[in-house]
Design a protein that fits this description.
10 helices
Length: about 280
Amino acid sequence: MKFNPTDYKKRNITIWNEVASRYHKRWASISQGPFASTSKLVQLLDIKKGDRVFDLACGTGVVTKKIIQKVGGSGFIIGGDTSVKAIKIAKKWNGKKLNLDFVNLDAETFRFSKKFDVITCQYALFFFPNAQKALKNMKKHLKKEGKLGITVHGGAQKVPFFSSIFDAVTEFIPDYVPPGSPDLDRFGTKKALNKEVKKAGFSKINVQDFNFNFNPGKFENYWQNYLKYLAKPLKEKLDALDKKQRKDLKNMVRENVKSFTQNDGTIKFPWEVLILTAKNKD
């Protein structure tokens, strides 16, 4: 079946509208594991008082919240996301401020009349079907010498929190992710991320890798939380497995996390994160 980017986007919006509150509670609102990167991203961009900043794919507003502390009352920040539910949470999480706004938009097609000093995009570039179109749109909305900051997860094997389950699940459900969907670790190396951003016309590109750790508890905690926070379309596919298949799947996942399991039974996952900074020289 031919990949349809419009259908893919609609599916993602439906999923994020469903899981946004769970995602915020479990991940985004706490600076643990991969979200220890939020402070790093803002720090590397050296955002100053008075800066006008756009936080693209802002989700529930965690990067936005860090930025608002930097721009001061003379600066301005806009957070934009495709999920209306995520934006609703972001508004509540950040509180009402005269120099803060949130809008519902698409990364590839958004339009603003004024340009920005800084654009941030954390954990989202890999979701965009046409990453080049999104990046060129970001570039078009940056002032000359404006700065871009992008955060992505490292390659699949360097983020075993995901791969330990995903590698097993796709053995049992080959179409777990719709065929043709963007590979979520396609920018998971310094070279790949640098190449994509350079192709869009940015310069002074710098990619740094950071390694964080995340402890999801013991195996049962890890497995049950995965099932608990799963979006409906994926849960339906898992629920379609028979009892033996589910048992075999769980055992395969258990085997995959053995090398990350401590003597007391808790799991300690390494988690690579890449943070890119670049400039718009045009």
